[in-house]
From TrEMBL:
Biological process terms in GO annotation: response to metal ion
Protein name: CutA1 divalent ion tolerance protein
A molecular function GO annotation: copper ion binding
Annotated organism of origin: candidate division WS6 bacterium GW2011_GWF2_39_15
Family from the record: Belongs to the CutA family.
Gene3D superfamilies membership: 3.30.70.120
Family annotation (Pfam families): CutA1
Length: 100
């Protein structure tokens, strides 16, 4: 099991991307929530709200998921895969029943 951590501008983007991933069986579950981001861009430190989208999936789905994310947004954002070493057996079974 892998988690893909994605930063987005707002809940609408997270909801649209999450629904598409679920409808295409690329994830069994997604979560999104607001955060505050401080970053440096073009020599300036900026603070602004963001939304994190967490996608629960399998490693081999990363490229397809990244393409879907890019089809919804046109700005530079973070998309990264996180290794999950252990996961509850029932959750893993659920993931495997959805994401083939």
């Amino acid at each position: 099991m892998k988690i893909i951590y994605v930063t987005l501008n707002n809940n609408e983007e997270a909801r649209e991307i999450g629904n598409e991933l679920l409808n295409k069986d690329l994830a069994n579950c997604v979560n999104f929530f607001p955060i505050t981001c401080i970053y440096k861009w073009e020599g300036k430190v900026t603070e602004e709200p963001e939304v994190v989208l967490i996608i629960k999936t399998k490693e081999e789905k990363y490229e397809e998921i990244e393409k879907i994310i890019k089809s919804h947004i046109d700005y530079t954002n973070f998309v990264g895969m996180i290794e999950i070493e252990k996961v509850r057996g029932e959750f893993k079974d659920w993931l495997n029943s959805i994401v083939k």
